[in-house]
Amino acid sequence: MSISPPAPQDLMVESIADQLYRVLRDRIVTGAYAPGDRLDPQAVAREFGVSRTPVRDAIAQLDHDQLIETRPRSGTFVARPGVRDVHEVCQLRKGIEWVATGVAATTMPLSKIADLRAEAEEALVALREGDYEPFFHSDLRLHREIVAETGNVRMMRARGSVEPFIAWLRILGATGPHRAEGSTVRHLQILDAMAARDVAAAQQAAAIHLDEVEEWTTADMTKSASD
Fold it and tell me: 153-175 burial, b if ≥16 CB within 10 A, otherwise e?
């Protein structure tokens, strides 16, 4: 398999290492590579017809994201996410999104809040009909838009760095779809408080939401491990 050539404008901004990183990351978070699978750098280099240098750089990015782990004298393996990982990711999200929600509650245009709310309501209807994809889209967009409202590039990058992990947990069954309705209810509470320009209520709802996400994900992960 070879990497599809990027558009001309992408060549200036995305290196081969970055392309490899995206491909390997997507294979991990979609379950093509299972937790515990060995990741052989030489095999990756042969598959994509590249030198070892971009492969090494891509693997370094995956290691930074804690999607892989290197064991001395054994090799590189897809990580096995655990309760500690969930705790750390949720702590990071809570710190970032508590601040971001406070900013968004004062600056996000009411028209955008209304649009996000309508999307969340549509997702809730779809959930009750057994369709979870609108929720995944609404969930991702809501949290991205709230953080983006800060205009803080470092904050957006930090929040974006955990998105692959969040998607990975869904694929692994560590965050059950039965939790989606509870999350959507919290999303609506956050948006209603933002629309009312009630900073304290919006931040409180965001904090409760992320505490619940951690609690639910930990419970589902524990149950999945015992099945």
Answer: eebbeebeebebbbbbbbebebb
Using CA atoms, how far apart are residues 191 and 29, in angstroms rounded to an integer?
29
Query: 38 by DSSP, 3-state: which?
Result: strand
Per-state percent for the chain, helix, strand, coil, to nearest 5 = 75, 5, 25
How many residues are recorded in the chain? 227
pTM of the model: 0.80
Pick the closest to residue 174 from 216, 139, 202 (CA basis).
216
pLDDT in tens, 48-61: 999 999 999 999 99
**For residue range 21-38, what is the model confidence (pLDDT) as tens digits?**
999 999 998 889 999 999
